[in-house]
Amino acid sequence: MVPLCPFLYAQGVREKEDNMCGIIGFTGDLDAKEVLVEGLKTLEYRGYDSAGIAFLADGKIKTIKTKGKVEDLKKKVEETSSDVTKCGIGHTRWATHGGVSDINSHPHTAGKVTLIHNGIIENYQDLAAEFALEGIKPVSQTDSEIAAMVINSFYEGDPKEAIKKAVGKLRGAYAFCVMFEDVPGVIYAIRNGSPLVATHTDEGSVIASDMVALIKYSKDYFVLPEHKIATLTNDGIVVDDLDGNVVEPEMLHVNWDIAAARKGGYDYFMLKEIHEQPEALRNTIMPRIKDGIVDFGEDGVPDDIFKKCNRIVIVGCGTAMHAGLVGKNMFEKLLRVPVSVEIASEFRYADPILSEDTLVISISQSGETADTLAAVRLAKEKGATTLSIVNVKGSSIARESDYVLYTHAGPEIAVASTKAYTVQLAVIYMIAFRCAMAKGKAGADEIKDLVNELKKTITCVENVIKYDSQIETISHMLDKATNLFFIGRGLDHALSCEGSIKLKEISYIHSEAYAAGELKHGTISLITDNVPVIAIATQQAVYEKMISNVEEVRSRGAGVILITNAGVTVKPQLCDHQIILPKMDDRFAPFGTAVILQYIAYYTAVHRGLNVDQPRNLAKSVTVE
Ligand code: M6R
């Protein structure tokens, strides 16, 4: 066995992905129950329906699991187990197959096999039917228990052989951590799609679905290559391919530390992450500015891809897609090249028209979103060049794209995306600047001016963060709302989309983002007394038209919160509250506006007594279709 040390690992392999729960495994010298429960707390944002652990004690594998939060699991563990253990696996669930119940919680056991699973086994019903013929019935409704049954059915004393044969029968996405009752102190792991990262230190070996659970132990880690089996022991981690050859995965390093993965005195991660935006922007923008212009040399992104493209397609989901909507505006203004922004889940089934001169830019915080990943694969298949904007190093989208520009936001834990969005805006603007230069559409002086404006967004965001208490007070206007509208024109319409999703996902208030000029073609009939309208009017070119649209909703009784750039005065009757951005070039107003919208969503959810970081039905990383 070779202990896992960074210097032992050379270049790794590039693979693909898919999942939606949090998993962790530990074997070593520490109290495994504590490692697992603490690890699950950090991973809870990946799914929070139920949680469980399994561990080795007195020569047996014991399982404790419950529906509810990791805190409920922690209590149950404290109440029911005084076992001392050094090896175990843990899981926090976002239900896909089988309702939320104790029995459906992970880990699942079949015979000598106990496992946790992240992903979806698509052919589990067929496999269950095969077992049924032999009179073997699962106790839960999950696809994961069937996977445990399959592994157990192949187990004849050689864990790797059983896993190898079992994965040959499974169709779908998975990350498994598996323990065998007669192989104490060892955890086996394999993945197809769903992520798994691992590290070994003097204290033992840890594997998890996300680096946030490993950072307590090390900043160096590796992504388990797909279809390879990791064997974790106290002494190290060995990775084999399915033919038994040892593989050396590529070691990666993160430049953030444990404080980034903790709330650090804030009530919620979302609030902490709103406050982290100036630093995230600084880390993302500044290293890429050389002699006043954008330079992607260190990212390895060549100008050729910009020179040869005559069409740009931006793909992403949710907030990431909304960042693309803002980017489109900057690209088209600077380059006069057609840009379309596509919802990744639609794009992949739309038979899109792509060619070698199309640049497909995918945007994803996690780098694991299944639909976005599929869009990247499709774009590559069709011969387009793929460039991704991703926050998580070594993630699937980053590895599978031709080129990647990382955002340096550090870990984003709250389900509602905040800092990831503003840094995505920064990178997409930088791509537009570099592309404009490469194509000869803008000279160095013009780009230097734009870069200067971009740098000012850091201070702008710093200043808007200080609006905290003002926006908290204003947000009380939404306390009782059941329905509301975000309206804007041009760039502000793109921001309306972002404001609306943020509010919906954490406050559960129904809202719609509308192009302000379009309201009068139908939707204005929904505006009645006191329906709140959040009107964004930061763009001088359409300001007067926008104000007319605000007048229209105001005269029908709407309660209006108006967001404007500095330097405009509005008549007091026009709105209930005006929030004024620090003076910015209009094209860069989205950065400050985004923070205002994040605060509105945040405080509205807080006033309603909701769990801001863990909104119902959602999980951070959406890796199912
Ligand atoms: O990890 P990704 O950026 O690919 O995630 C995309 C969306 O799922 C994500 O932005 C989602 O819309 C957020 N929860 C919104 O706040």
Structure in a nutshell:
The protein has about 625 residues and is an alpha/beta fold. The protein folds into three domains: about 25-260, Glutamine Phosphoribosylpyrophosphate, subunit 1, domain 1 (4-Layer Sandwich), CATH 3.60.20; about 265-465, Glucose-6-phosphate isomerase like protein, domain 1 (Rossmann fold), CATH 3.40.50.10490; about 470-605, Glucose-6-phosphate isomerase like protein, domain 1 (Rossmann fold, 3-Layer(aba) Sandwich).
Task: Give the N-terminus to C-terminus distance in angstroms.
Answer: 39 Å
Largest sheet: 8 strands, antiparallel
Unreliable stretches covering 5 or more consecutive residues: 1-19
**Beta-strand content estimate:** 15-25%
Considering DSSP H and I runs of 4 or more, what fraction of the residues is helical? 25-40%
Secondary-structure-derived class: alpha/beta
Number of discrete helical segments: 18
From the alpha carbons, calculate the radius of gyration and give it in angstroms. 25 Å
Strand order of the largest sheet: 3-2-4-1-10-9-11-14
Overall tally of structural domains: 3
Number of E-state strands: 26
Q: What is the architecture of the largest domain at the second tier of CATH?
A: 4-Layer Sandwich
Associated small molecules: 5-amino-5-deoxy-1-O-phosphono-D-mannitol
Report the CATH superfamily of the largest domain: Aminohydrolase, N-terminal nucleophile (Ntn) domain
Q: What is the typical, i.e. mean, pLDDT? A: 93
- Give the C-level CATH assignment of the largest domain: Alpha Beta
Q: Say what the CATH topology of the largest domain is.
A: Glutamine Phosphoribosylpyrophosphate, subunit 1, domain 1
